[in-house]
Structure formats: C-alpha cells, structure tokens
C-alpha cells in the first residue's frame, strides 16, 4: 500500500458501518459478502435488510471473487472532477459465480464473457479501496 494511505483505524472510521466487513475482508485478501441467515441467499451491496426476503439476519461469509463480465463500458468523460485524470477507463458489470453482481474497474479491452477475479485497489478517498476486475487467463 502507498505511504499516504490512511492508517487502519482511520480507514475503519471513515467507512460505512454496513459495509465495513466487506472492505476489511478485501484488504486481507478475503472476499466476504452478505448472506441472509433466513433465506440463505447472498446479496450485494451490503444493506440492513435482505433484498430477497426482508430479514435483518445477515452475516458476512467468504465466497469466490471469480465471475464473468456481463457488460463493459469505457468512459471518455469523467463523471466527477476528481476522476478527470483517469479517463479513459472501463467499468464492467460482473456476475460472480456466487450469484451476485457488482461493478468494477476493468482493463479497457474488457468484453462480455471475459472471466475475471475481483480484487481491491487502494485509493485515497473512502472507502479507500476500489473494486477492480482482473482478467483470468
Ligand atoms: Zn433473505
């Protein structure tokens, strides 16, 4: 991690309490997603109620970060001023083998059907990691 990355306590404080286990796990190389104890289905993003059955009984469980790209779009204009130095960059929607979908940065030549693995990449602002899709060859 870079020298200007905030200390662990600062990263913890700045993160949304609902998603802290996800980000903390990602920092440790573990992919923890919320799973409902009532219906046993995973979901993403972390939230207080299960989107499938409404239960509040949710726990984080380790799952595979592997999946397939459903769609990919390369942005040539930054949606926010802080990303102007990063365009062009590609965002991919990834369907994980675990049955959840998420969005992640991806190589600019990413295409639907590519097999990828999700990882965390340090950034300066909360949540201090961004999701990146790394192509599996
Ligand atoms: Zn449920």
Automatic annotation (TrEMBL):
InterPro entries with a match to the protein in the record: ChsH2_C, ChsH2_Znr, NA-bd_OB-fold, Thioester_dehydratase-like
Parts forming coiled coils: none
ChsH2 C-terminal OB-fold domain: residues covered: 64-119
A Pfam family that the UniProt record links to this protein: zf-ChsH2
Residue span(s) of domain ChsH2 rubredoxin-like zinc ribbon: 23-57
SUPFAM superfamilies assigned: Nucleic acid-binding proteins (SSF50249)
Protein name: Zn-ribbon domain-containing OB-fold protein
């Amino acid at each position: 991690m870079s020298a200007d990355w905030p200390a662990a306590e600062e990263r913890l404080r700045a993160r949304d309490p609902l998603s802290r286990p996800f980000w903390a796990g990602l920092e440790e190389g573990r992919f923890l997603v919320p799973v409902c104890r009532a219906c046993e289905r995973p979901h993403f993003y972390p939230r207080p109620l299960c989107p499938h059955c409404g239960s509040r009984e949710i726990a984080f469980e380790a799952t595979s970060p592997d999946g397939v790209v459903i769609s990919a779009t390369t942005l040539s204009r930054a949606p926010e001023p802080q990303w102007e130095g990063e365009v062009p960059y590609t965002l991919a929607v990834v369907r994980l083998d675990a049955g959840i979908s998420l969005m992640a940065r991806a190589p600019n030549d990413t295409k639907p059907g590519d097999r990828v693995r999700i990882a965390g990449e340090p950034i300066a602002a909360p949540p201090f990691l961004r999701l990146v899709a790394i192509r599996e060859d």
